[in-house]
């Protein structure tokens, strides 16, 4: 037999015994009710949202029919569009001054859109619990796809258990996707919002789900879809302050579970395109429908078994030129129109033009406006809040619901806890990590805002006076802390107002974890702000100047940096 004939026979045999296929996983996360490509707080178009993501999904499906589509949670809470609907479901009526122009809206808007797009599954996020189990179960019932969570068990809950995983076969490849929810939910939510549910350790639960998945289904490709983030900087390996591995266990999942091919995840509102942790592919799309994740897996079949021969991750961004899907826009329009009418309702008066651009570098009346409300309703001694949206802007004159909603964009509830001066000092020291230090008064070149600390974790206190001294090392920056005109001692009892997430210890505020909660609002802080200023009619005219950054040179640099960020919309 000639060598050429032998080579052809061997090649033909190899082509029969070896078969290759590409499987694609498409994923979104932390959509937070962003359906329209629209910023409700500025009333301007925005390059984000599920309507635009739908176009990217369609394009990717055309490239590879062997695909799955997953959402990683925090889906039915966040935007004013979802908030109006969820509050209507919870209260059974619309806000005062608002009425339906046609028949009442019966279906959760995000679930309706995701049904139309054709999602295969969704992971349960922590914000799915914000409106209570009745709202959660109603939205879940609207979905024509399973909600996944392997580490939430329904011990005595009034809802059916969540599926631990999804199994689907594409092109002969059996794929298993395990869902994981951050176990930190009980630290943030009211007990009635998760009654009868237990949140288990993510790694232990994923290990059990993996064993069950393998025993029952023998998958060829195993993925985890997690509503949880990374507890560390992947470049340095440094664990972020306040992290315990419980809230954000993705790195641990990758390192401690054998046989996981990839993890797609969310929760932390960061993004990660293609990172390997112990051979496990890690990918995180951006929140609010700003990008779509695509994970590609090349598999080869030999001797009757599939094996992964390559894998990669890619983030596909939404841009201003990305076309919105017309069917999604049409589906969402009744919800959008109702939201717009709600946001235009008048609330109060602003005595002057003001904006939030400098609210993370100096005391401003807008932050004081939040603190004033929190102190009023909680009857607390001290209030803590961040500026969650530095882009907020109030003109002099009438203030609408839209502007108030822009001032406090999250559906947090207000808590009052029993604390003391030492706890408050520790919290303010944690907050002060938002700034880069200036040893001996000499500030380093470049930015003085610490990129490792998210701006929404920079809390400011109302009810005390203090300075943040950047000439001092982290942990020793809070100076001249005074309460009612006197130095605040560590043992001084304090009733502290803060949101439910801070009370759970998130953002490095572990000092609040386990503190006795003496009062809960039962309403979102945003709604309290609306109620307060509807009654009081006018916002603070100017800040009371109860805190400042020193030295002056650092303060000047930070003000210039914040103004530049405002011009470039970098937050």
Explain what this protein looks like in three dimensions.
The protein has 571 residues and is α/β, with parallel strands linked by helices. It folds into two domains: 25-336, 4-Layer Sandwich (Purple Acid Phosphatase, chain A, domain 2), CATH 3.60.21.10; 346-568, 5'-Nucleotidase, C-terminal domain (5'-nucleotidase,  domain 2), CATH 3.90.780.10. Helices cover 29% and strands 27% of the residues. The chain contains 14 helices and 29 strands. It has a six-stranded mixed beta sheet with strand order 6-5-4-1-15-16. The protein has a six-stranded mixed beta sheet with strand order 8-9-11-12-14-13. Strands 23-19-27-22-28 form a five-stranded mixed beta sheet. Helix 9 crosses helix 13 (525-536).
CATH topology of the largest domain: Purple Acid Phosphatase, chain A, domain 2
* End-to-end Cα distance: 71 Å
Instruction: Classify the secondary structure makeup into a structural class.
Output: alpha/beta
> What is the share of helical residues?
25-40%
Oligomer: single chain
Number of helices: 14
Report the C-alpha radius of gyration, rounded.
25 Å
User: Architecture of the largest domain, according to CATH?
Assistant: 4-Layer Sandwich
Mean pLDDT: 93
Counted up, domains total 2
User: What global shape is seen?
Assistant: globular
Largest sheet: 6 strands, mixed
Low-confidence stretches: 6-17
- CATH top level label of the largest domain: Alpha Beta
- For the biggest β-sheet, the strand order reads 6-5-4-1-15-16
Give the strand content: 25-35%
Please report the total strand number as a whole number.
Answer: 29
User: Considering the protein shown, what is the CATH homologous superfamily of the largest domain?
Assistant: Metallo-dependent phosphatases
């Amino acid at each position: 037999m000639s060598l050429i004939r032998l080579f052809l026979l061997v090649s033909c045999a190899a082509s029969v015994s070896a078969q290759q296929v590409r499987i694609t996983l498409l994923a979104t996360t932390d959509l937070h009710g962003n359906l329209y490509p629209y910023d409700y707080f500025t009333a301007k178009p925005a390059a984000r949202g599920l309507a635009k993501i739908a176009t990217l999904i369609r394009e990717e499906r055309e490239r590879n029919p062997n695909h799955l589509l997953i959402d990683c949670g925090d889906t039915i809470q966040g935007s004013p569009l979802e908030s109006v609907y969820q509050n209507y479901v919870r209260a059974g009526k619309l806000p005062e001054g608002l009425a339906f122009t046609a028949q009442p809206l019966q279906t959760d808007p995000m679930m309706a859109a995701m049904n139309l797009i054709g999602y295969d599954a969704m992971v349960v996020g922590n914000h799915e619990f914000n409106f209570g189990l009745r709202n959660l179960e109603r939205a879940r019932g609207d979905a024509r796809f399973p909600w996944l969570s392997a580490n939430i068990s329904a011990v005595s809950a009034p809802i059916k258990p969540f599926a631990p995983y999804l199994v689907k076969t594409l092109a002969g490849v059996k794929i298993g996707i395990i869902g994981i929810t951050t176990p930190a939910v009980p630290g943030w939510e009211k007990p009635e919002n998760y009654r009868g549910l237990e949140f288990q350790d993510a790694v232990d639960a994923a290990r059990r789900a993996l064993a069950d998945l393998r025993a029952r289904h023998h998958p060829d490709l195993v993925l985890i879809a997690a509503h949880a983030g990374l507890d560390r900087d992947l470049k340095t390996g440094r664990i972020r302050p306040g992290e315990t591995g419980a809230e954000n266990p993705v790195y641990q999942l990758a390192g401690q579970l054998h046989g996981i091919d990839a993890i797609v995840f969310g929760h932390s509102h960061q993004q990660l395109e293609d990172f390997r942790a112990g051979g496990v592919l890690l990918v995180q799309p951006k929140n609010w429908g700003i990008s779509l994740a695509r994970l590609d897996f090349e598999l080869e079949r030999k001797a009757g078994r599939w094996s992964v021969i390559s894998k990669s991750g890619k983030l596909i961004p939404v841009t201003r030129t990305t076309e919105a899907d017309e069917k999604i826009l049409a589906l969402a329009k009744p919800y959008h129109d109702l939201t717009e009418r709600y946001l235009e309702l008048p609330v109060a008066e602003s005595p002057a033009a003001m904006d939030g651009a400098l609210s993370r570098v100096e005391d401003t009346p807008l932050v004081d406006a939040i603190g004033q409300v929190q102190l009023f309703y909680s009857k607390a001694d001290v209030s803590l809040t961040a500026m969650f949206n530095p882009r907020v802007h109030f003109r002099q004159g009438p203030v609408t619901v839209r502007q108030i909603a822009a001032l406090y964009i999250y559906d947090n509830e207000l808590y009052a806890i029993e604390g003391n001066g030492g706890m408050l000092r520790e919290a303010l020291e944690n907050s002060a990590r938002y700034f880069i230090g200036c040893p001996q008064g000499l500030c380093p070149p470049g930015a003085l805002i610490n990129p490792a600390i998210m701006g929404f974790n920079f809390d400011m206190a109302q009810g005390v006076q203090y300075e943040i001294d950047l000439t001092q090392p982290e942990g020793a920056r809070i100076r001249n802390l005074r309460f009612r005109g006197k130095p605040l001692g560590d043992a001084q009892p304090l009733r502290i107002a803060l949101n439910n997430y801070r009370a759970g210890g998130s953002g490095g505020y572990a000092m609040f974890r386990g503190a006795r909660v003496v009062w809960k609002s039962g309403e979102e802080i945003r709604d309290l702000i609306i109620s307060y200023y509807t009654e009081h009619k006018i916002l603070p005219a100017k800040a009371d100047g109860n805190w400042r950054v020193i030295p002056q040179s650092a303060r000047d640099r930070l003000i210039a940096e914040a103004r530049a960020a405002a011009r470039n919309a970098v937050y």
